[in-house]
Design brief:
alpha/beta; binds 6-O-phosphono-beta-D-fructofuranose; 11 helices; elongated; binds magnesium ion; Rossmann fold; binds adenosine-5'-triphosphate; 11 strands; five-stranded mixed sheet; 2 domains; 343 residues; four-stranded parallel sheet
Length: 343
Amino acid sequence: MKIGILTSGGDCPGLNAVIRGAVLRGVISHEAEFVGFRWGWRGVVQGDIVPLPRQEVRGLSRQGGTILHSSRTNPFEGEGGGPENIQRMLDENGIDAIIAIGGEGTLTAARRLVDEGGINVVGVPKTIDNDLAATDYSFGFDTAVEIATEAIDRLRTTADSHGRCMVVEVMGRHVGWIALHSGMAGGAHAILIPEQPMSIDEICHYVESVRDRGRAPVIVVAEGFKLTDMEAEHSHKGLDAFNRPRLGGIAELLAPMIEARTGIESRDTVLGHIQRGGAPSAYDRVLATRLGMAAVDAVKDQAWGEMVTLRGTDIARVSIREATGNLNTVPQSRYDEARVLFG
Ligand SMILES: Nc1ncnc2c1ncn2[C@@H]1O[C@H](COP(=O)(O)OP(=O)(O)OP(=O)(O)O)[C@@H](O)[C@H]1O
Ligand SMILES: O=P(O)(O)OC[C@H]1O[C@](O)(CO)[C@@H](O)[C@@H]1O
Ligand SMILES: [Mg+2]
């Protein structure tokens, strides 16, 4: 059995741990052989393939990024794209199956390759934002929350020194999980998330009540947050490779608005890709390793079109279709719980 692995979409701490888990499980338990497709689906479309023997994955679980690199290439486009070309490339290289590690977009492409072209693909969910339904948590999220929480802790001390308001922007295109968890952990005075638009007046109300208690306000905002009068997410950086608006910068918009309305000197910090870089947390290493191992078992069982997932503390399987249809949004009850601590 020869298995090709790829990592696609935005990177995320733990990708290398998935690769290591898959290779070790395959080599030890199934006598499998592994190759890597470089740069996500681009490696599949262009036949950019590297061997992945056991020694290549040594010590990988603690390493950030992805040794296979990533891209936002669409496997249905370009000269070598589409199921027929991909099946030919797999046959030429003697590859029996693909393990695709990626988010909603990557997994949707994987499902289409299975449904429309009969390609042997299983998926591993990857999302720093924790926005995929059908998995309770995804690896990388815990690490991002740790990084954001440390940043909030650090910003709090400088905020206190100067009596300033700090607006901290974290990732979260469609959902506010990183903001919710890091904000709760770091004791934020308001948490602004895409699922819950809020007016600038309400935000300033929280800021002023914090100031009136003699504290320096700390506001955490997810990049996809919209003020109640905004039609779309704040974006001033053009489009990404998949023609979506590049987000980032809502904190830069909010801080001067807060300062103008409240008179409290305000500063913004955009954490950006710091949240995606570096070593994964121990939790993420374990989760990623288990998912990688389970993905190889899914290949062994020919579970094409399925993805491995975390259910409670168990690793399970679901159809990719089930996972890609819905977003894992922050439930109202979780936001209401956090809101008690605002202001
Ligand atoms: N419906 C689709 N059909 C074919 N290809 C798709 C489809 N949706 C997305 N893709 C391809 O998959 C790539 C990866 O998707 P995307 O860029 O959204 O990353 P992702 O895997 O969802 O990870 P992230 O969490 O970073 O968004 C896209 O850039 C696109 O080329
Ligand atoms: O790394 P890029 O391509 O700028 O993508 C950033 C986006 O990817 C994510 O990190 C994960 O989807 C989002 O939170 C963010 O909007
Ligand atoms: Mg996506």
